[in-house]
């Protein structure tokens, strides 16, 4: 099958749309299909030559106030690329500007178009403009109604689309690279460099932009014995460096280096409430790291209450001290919860798109049992001392994160990896 992937972003850009478009192209090539990518021109000489297929770049300009995002300009290259590739289907990754033109070109050529919903434009309108949510949904509905099929990355995204009148929506969940992201990459030398006094490391990975709400980590930063590590770049970095003095800002990291950082964290905190999926949650889970995130949007699919982690209504104080020390855990997050958090990563295929592909990659390795609390604490320390040392710090940090989420009006969830459970425990034997 000959597929043209029209995407608003593509590597070397670092974001969810670019990552998913790249993985889709790789998946199609691996299955014997012939994809072609059409994406906005990037600044500089780095055009992402590691792509698995040809890439056509169209002229673009940086978005005012956010130069890392580039907006495609009108160009005949798009329609010409689709026609010259003799496409069987057009795959539109997060269509907004270039994708809309790709939709129109597909219609003129009589080709089916599949649109992937990946960006919460309505949430961004609330964040950046304080208004315009209704207008954003009108735009989303208009674009996706024109597609033959819309793919939603999470149950929350699917429900939002259907509630706003978008037809022909199917679930297309994401996977994670469990070869790259795995617990065994935990690096003690890196940990010593980031936390020279042995502090507990709470990390965030992602874009530094207003909608990500990274400032919620301010309360955690002030805790004794806790080191906040921020990985990523974006327009909010200068203000965040002022809001989070003492935090380690590592900038943009990718590939194996990023995987090593993930595995070296004690807690992964995702602060943004506008995620249609949230790939970094899965990457942290695959790395065997506990995850704290708002109980809204995409992360809801990654947490099964009482199985892979607890979720709590907004008015309920979240008891975050779970599987973090030698005290009795609560029923919602006992030892089995931790094991399920690691085991949850069975390969769950999603509905096939018109390209014939499906999300069959494991969402978290069954072997992602990090056993981090045992690795962190010397074996000769009496168990009674653990409550007041690193384990107690983890409990306090998680509680502080939960307070920040609740004060911001979000419901937090906690995903805790742990040991694998047997088939007898899950009732899935045979």
Automatic annotation (TrEMBL):
Q: Does the keyword Glycosyltransferase apply?
A: yes
Q: Which GO terms describe its biological process?
A: carbohydrate derivative biosynthetic process
Residues spanning the signal sequence: none
Which portions of the chain have biased composition (kind: Pro residues)?
Answer: 320-332
Bias (Basic and acidic residues) ranges: 367-387
Composition skew (Low complexity), residue ranges: 353-366
Q: Pfam families from the entry?
A: Glyco_trans_1_4 (PF13692), Glyco_transf_4 (PF13439)
The protein's UniProt keywords, in alphabetical order, are: Glycosyltransferase, Transferase
Would you say which domain of life the source belongs to? Bacteria
Region named Disordered: 320-387
Any one Gene Ontology MF annotation carried by this entry is: hexosyltransferase activity
Q: List, for all copies, the residue spans of the domain called Glycosyltransferase subfamily 4-like N-terminal.
A: 14-179
The record, for CDD domains, names: GT4-like (cd03814)
Q: What is this protein called?
A: Glycosyltransferase subfamily 4-like N-terminal domain-containing protein
Record organism: Streptomyces haneummycinicus
Which lineage is the organism of this entry classified under, starting from the top rank? Bacteria, Bacillati, Actinomycetota, Actinomycetes, Kitasatosporales
